[in-house]
Amino acid sequence: MDSFLRRLKYYGIGFGIGLVFVLFFFQNRGCSWLPSNRVKNSFLERLIVVSDSQFVAMNKLGINKKELISVLNDGDVNFGASRKSTNPKVYELEKEINGKETKFYFTLPEESFIAEVFLADRSIGKIQNSRSGSGKIIHFPNDETIVYVDSTRLLSCQQMEIGLTDSKSLLEAIKKTGKIDFEKSRLGMSPKPEHYISFKDKKGVQIGAKAVWYKTKINISSFELPYSTDCE
Prior knowledge:
- The chain is an alpha+beta fold.
- The protein has six helices and eleven strands.
- The chain has three domains: 1-31; 32-134, 2-Layer Sandwich (YaeB-like fold), CATH 3.30.2310; 147-224.
């Protein structure tokens, strides 16, 4: 019995030392089981969007896209100040940027593939996803197959018209020129929110697409082209 207790004691000491190394020396990286990292991963698995008005306000403070993503890498999640039981959920994150502690709100709407970022310059109770204007997409998950299009004759024909015939080229076009149109999106739609993405095709023409979040993929269900085709 004494031998077992001694081994258990040594195991506990070793486990504790390991936690110290993970938590302090590696700054929680790779610990997906930690509550703060689970929250951060929930954002990084989605498209992170900043409205045009918020983007201007952040630029005035010297905050760029790279710094916003760094908030999710090594910022602190303030669980006590967050809204965890509403739709959307809103989390307060804090990080030192340009020598100043800066707070942000990140929204997490249910069944949606976007997370929106706000400066924490108002009460968290007033934060909702934008309903007007558009938003810049500053982050995409590391998944080259995240976008797929319903396999209908109409959509296949429209893809031929816009010159983006496969999911990879479509994703690249969205990464390069895509925005979320908040006014045309219906994030409160049930059972799944409908997102409206605008982007430019191979000819530089603005195209619209309606999409929903299906499991871990962006499912495009329709295209809106500004010109007539023989697809209909």
